[in-house]
């Protein structure tokens, strides 16, 4: 079960970067499409990843993770994809709750 949950979580992280890239392209063409997901990935690498330099724990890590996912859902909404935004945010929340509940 833990493997499946973490595989879905990883997929959602990759999808988040794609969403950030799509929104960045909409706002600043190729520069935005490259720099915005790079910024998000850097923030995650510094503070949220298992090998983070400045590792967040507890509520702070959960807050960072949910912020990254829900901002991606909001950006989908801004890109005129309401149903995808709701589905993406719902699955992100569900997976986050499962990770906390299963103590993964």
Automatic annotation (TrEMBL):
Keywords: Membrane, Transmembrane, Transmembrane helix. The keyword Transmembrane helix applies. The chain crosses the membrane at residues 6-23, 30-47, 59-77, 84-102. It comes from the Bacteria. This is DUF2568 domain-containing protein.
């Amino acid at each position: 079960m833990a493997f499946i949950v973490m595989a879905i979580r990883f997929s959602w992280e990759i999808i988040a970067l794609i969403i950030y890239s799509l929104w960045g392209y909409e706002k600043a063409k190729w520069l935005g499409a490259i720099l915005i997901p790079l910024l998000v990935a850097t923030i995650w690498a510094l503070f949220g990843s298992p090998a983070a330099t400045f590792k967040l724990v507890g509520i702070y890590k959960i807050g960072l993770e949910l912020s990254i996912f829900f901002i991606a859902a909001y950006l989908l909404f801004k890109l005129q994809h309401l149903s995808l935004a709701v589905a993406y945010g719902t699955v992100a929340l569900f997976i986050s709750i499962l990770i906390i509940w299963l103590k993964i």
